[in-house]
Amino acid sequence: MLEVLYEDNHLIAINKKSGDIVQGDKTGDAPLSDFVKTYIKKKYNKPSEVFLGTIHRLDRPTSGVVLYARTSKALARMNEQFRNQEVQKTYWAVVDNAPPNTSGTLDNFLQKNKKQNKSYVTKNNEGKHAVLDFKLLKKLDNFYHLEIKPKTGRHHQIRVQLANIGCIVKGDLKYGAKRSNKDASIHLLAQKLEFTHPVTKEATSITAPAPKDSIWRACR
């Protein structure tokens, strides 16, 4: 069942669950976009093909807000906002170690290894510039709850930049976690998306609830 967080004639936002893929890939698994199209087709009794534009993506093991466009106009305008870094993205992460400071900025250059589907922090300013702000929200029994606001949108940016300072996201084997989560998720949540509505021009904020497990519950 889809969990719809926001819906109007121009946009639809879904609470993506870990394991869902936002758009079709080489795995051949049915993407979330297919289920959203089916939902729209049934709800509005649309006889023809449903338009749905993918505005942005989340990594497969990540959960949280995913925004799709229901019109080509909304897609073009939202793409421009993302391109111009006018969209404020807020993530929550549960990590295994405390960051060096309670808040700060991570500023690195990243290179993607396509064969490994993994990114690396590079030296000598090689690759793509990646910047994020972080803040420690809460110390848990064995983990730390962080808020992250990325300023750029690079491949696996939050995961690799946090791992680079010794703050590995819980369950993220790809970036050094000692153990996986039982459901193959990682404790990274796209918690909030803030932007200007592409048609009404109103300030819009969409928030996703955290998954229902004991670690996320402890963060509240």
The CATH topology is what?
Pseudouridine synthase
Topology pattern, helix = H, strand = E: EEHEEHEEEEEHEEH
**Helical stretch count?**
4
Largest β sheet strand count, sense and barrel closure: 11 strands, mixed
Distance between the termini: 25 Å
- What is the averaged pLDDT score? 95
Q: Which stretches are poorly predicted, pLDDT < 50 over at least 5 residues?
A: none
SS strand fraction: 25-35%
The amount of helix comes to 10-25%
Characteristic terms for this protein:
220 residues; alpha+beta; 4 helices; 11-stranded mixed beta sheet; Pseudouridine synthase; 11 strands
Explain this structure:
The model has no long low-confidence stretch (mean pLDDT 95). This protein has helices at residues 32-43, 72-83, 157-164, 214-219, and strands at residues 4-7, 11-16, 53-54, 63-69, 88-95, 103-113, 118-121, 128-139, 144-150, 188-196, 203-207. The chain is built from four helices and eleven strands; from the N terminus they run E-E-H-E-E-H-E-E-E-E-E-H-E-E-H. It is globular and about 55 Å long. It has a single domain (4-219), classed as Pseudouridine synthase (2-Layer Sandwich). The two termini are 25 Å apart. With 220 residues, it is α+β, with helices and mostly antiparallel strands.
Question: How do the helices and strands line up, and which of them pair or pack?
Answer:
Elements: E1 4-7, E2 11-16, H1 32-43, E3 53-54, E4 63-69, H2 72-83, E5 88-95, E6 103-113, E7 118-121, E8 128-139, E9 144-150, H3 157-164, E10 188-196, E11 203-207, H4 214-219
Parallel strand pairs: 4-10
Antiparallel strand pairs: 1-2, 2-4, 3-4, 5-9, 5-10, 6-7, 6-8, 8-9, 10-11
